[in-house]
């Protein structure tokens, strides 16, 4: 697969603090990646290093095949870090034209991208008059100007209201559907779960996991059960080696699987044992549960 | 190069404050010189006409106009300092780099702008001096007109040097107001050092060393013209004579500082995490 970004043993120290420690991963073309981690886990620092604004302490990284300098490679990248940064006294069009000049892109792209993010009717308003949601959408338009091979978004929905969050997510989904590689840093797990196929999980600058979202934890999922004969069901489950643990909350029993089992087989099994289930749901852990498990255990 | 200049000019000219300051720094000296060349009737008591004093004669006019015009460089210094300060306060410097501008290009775009405006200013001053000179000067032979035009070069070098210093201070402290304060501190510091040296050694020696200091070396490029005007009025007073010529080595010192300031600005940005 064609690689877009390769990071090898990257380390960044701020004085005594190690923000990123010996980090390695590769971003391949066409996937949507999420970088997950609590606040202060080194997500923004890592992105800062590959985007040429933070100096690395050790290790190296290269864009594409490794033959392009970082600042030339960045002309094929679209990125937004934290807050949208523009010249407040310029209008949206003027700001985007400035970016066109930096990236060496034709001005005709400006209107096209403003259309994508739905800001065309406000294109001649000054940036300082924009709401936060509009500013963030302008930032996305700016990142898209050069039709980038990869779009890097750092906390794109931070501080937005529900409508704003929804708009940004829709735009991200549209872009992903067109086959653009996306790297999304966030601590909002449902956000990552909804759009990403691959994740890199960081904690205190150390990589805990990198790979497909659904392979993050080697787990066979769990059943959520309700029945009128609760005591009997619990004994049954405890004696069955297919389950590794059981959790009871009120009348809801959660049984974690140790080996794969289909729900119809389980339903048939309990019925044969004389227990009739009133509620049966088979689920895998959500990203949030998996993430908490990963970050707590290590 | 044009791309970088174009980039910076857009940033400056769309900003109302810097537009006004640029306008003032170019138009004000222009007008002051123009006005002073006119015949002014002071409330009917007497007519003040500076042209009559012979100060608009070639070649002394080159000296005079460049000296006065360089006093207005402070306005554009504010622009230089704020064009760095604004990049930091708007965090657009970070965005520029992310968008694919290299750190070297960032500094160069600022430096090209400095050179560009210094050049425009020099051309304006030379044009107006030339016109006023032609009008007033008693001598209009080409050999006299173009004598001492090295003051124009000195003026150009002086502006570039001074604005590069502002660029460096801007990069160093990131805030426009503090950078201007630093300029003032440097000015005081140079005089304190001069005082110390004059106290420890002798004044002549101290002055020679002081001529290498950044601000003093820039000032020294175009010496004050008053004494020279006095000299033309009283040619027999030998104790008035002084070295007012814009020497090549004075320019070399300032160009040395310029190179150092631009290089240091680049090093500073390169080392810094944004």
UniProtKB/TrEMBL annotation, chain A:
**Residues annotated as domain ABC transporter:** 5-229
The record's keywords, sorted A to Z, are:
ATP-binding, Nucleotide-binding, Transport
InterPro entries the record matches? AAA+_ATPase, ABC_transporter-like_ATP-bd, ABC_transporter-like_CS, P-loop_NTPase
Tell me the GO molecular function terms.
ATP binding
- Protein family (similarity comment): Belongs to the ABC transporter superfamily.
Checking PANTHER family in the record gives:
ABC TRANSPORTER, ATP-BINDING PROTEIN
What name does UniProt use for this protein? Answer: ATP-binding cassette domain-containing protein
Query: What is the source species?
Result: Flavivirga algicola
From TrEMBL, chain B:
Membrane spanning stretches: 20-40, 60-84, 111-136, 151-170, 177-199, 248-269
One Pfam family from the UniProt entry?
Answer: ABC2_membrane_2
Q: Which UniProt keywords apply?
A: Membrane, Transmembrane, Transmembrane helix
Per the record, the coiled-coil ranges are none
Domain of life, per UniProt, equals Bacteria
Q: What is the name listed in the Swiss-Prot or TrEMBL entry for this protein? A: ABC transporter permease subunit
State the organism of origin.
Flavivirga algicola
The record lists the lineage as: Bacteria, Pseudomonadati, Bacteroidota, Flavobacteriia, Flavobacteriales
């Amino acid at each position: 697969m064609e690689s877009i970004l390769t990071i090898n043993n990257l380390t960044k120290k701020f004085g005594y603090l190690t923000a990123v420690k010996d980090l390695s991963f590769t971003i391949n073309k066409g996937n949507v990646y999420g970088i997950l981690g609590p606040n202060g886990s080194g997500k923004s620092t890592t992105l800062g290093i590959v985007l040429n604004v933070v100096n690395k302490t050790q290790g190296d990284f290269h864009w594409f095949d490794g033959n392009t300098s970082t600042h030339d490679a960045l002309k094929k990248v679209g990125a937004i870090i934290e807050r949208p940064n523009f010249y407040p006294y310029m209008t949206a069009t003027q700001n985007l034209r400035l970016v066109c000049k930096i990236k060496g892109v034709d001005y005709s792209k400006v209107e096209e991208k403003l259309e994508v993010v739905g800001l065309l009717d406000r294109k001649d308003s000054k940036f300082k008059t924009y709401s936060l949601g509009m500013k963030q959408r302008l930032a996305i338009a700016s990142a898209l100007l050069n039709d980038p091979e990869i779009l890097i978004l750092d906390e794109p929905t931070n501080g937005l209201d529900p409508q704003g969050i929804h708009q940004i997510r829709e735009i991200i989904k549209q872009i992903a559907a067109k086959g653009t590689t996306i790297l999304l840093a966030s601590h909002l797990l449902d956000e990552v779960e909804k759009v990403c196929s691959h994740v890199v999980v960081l904690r205190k600058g150390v990589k805990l996991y990198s790979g497909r979202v659904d392979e993050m934890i080697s787990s066979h999922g769990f059943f959520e059960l309700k029945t009128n004969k609760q005591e009997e069901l619990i004994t049954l489950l405890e004696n069955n080696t297919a389950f590794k643990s059981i959790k009871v909350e009120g009348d809801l029993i959660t049984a974690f699987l140790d080996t794969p089992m289909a729900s119809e087989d389980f339903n048939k099994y309990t019925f044969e044992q004389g227990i009739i289930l009133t509620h049966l749901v088979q689920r895998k852990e959500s990203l949030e549960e998996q993430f908490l498990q990963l970050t707590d255990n290590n | 190069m044009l791309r970088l200049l174009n980039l910076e000019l857009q940033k400056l000219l769309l900003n109302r404050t810097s537009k006004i300051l640029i306008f003032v720094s170019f138009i004000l000296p222009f007008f002051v010189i123009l006005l002073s060349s006119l015949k002014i009737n002071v409330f009917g008591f007497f007519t003040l006409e500076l042209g009559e004093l012979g100060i608009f004669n070639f070649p002394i006019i080159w000296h005079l106009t460049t000296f006065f015009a360089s006093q207005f460089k402070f306005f554009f210094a504010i622009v230089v300092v704020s064009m760095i300060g604004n990049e930091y306060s708007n965090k657009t410097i970070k965005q520029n780099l992310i968008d694919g501008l290299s750190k070297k290009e960032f500094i160069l775009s600022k430096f090209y702008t400095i050179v560009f405006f210094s050049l425009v200013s020099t051309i304006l001053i030379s044009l107006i001096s030339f016109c006023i000179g032609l009008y007033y000067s008693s001598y209009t032979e080409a050999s006299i007109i173009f004598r001492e035009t090295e003051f124009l070069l000195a003026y150009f070098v002086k502006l570039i040097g001074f604005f590069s210093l502002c660029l460096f201070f801007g990069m160093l402290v990131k805030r426009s107001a503090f950078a201007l304060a630093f300029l003032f501190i440097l000015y005081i510091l140079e005089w304190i050092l001069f005082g110390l040296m004059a106290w420890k050694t002798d004044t002549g020696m101290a002055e020679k060393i002081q001529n290498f200091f950044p601000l003093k070396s820039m000032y020294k490029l175009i010496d004050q013209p008053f004494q020279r005007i006095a000299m033309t009025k009283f040619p027999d007073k030998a104790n008035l004579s002084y070295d007012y010529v814009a020497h090549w080595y004075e320019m070399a010192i300032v160009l040395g500082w310029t190179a150092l300031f631009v290089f240091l600005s680049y090093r500073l940005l390169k080392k810094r995490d944004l």
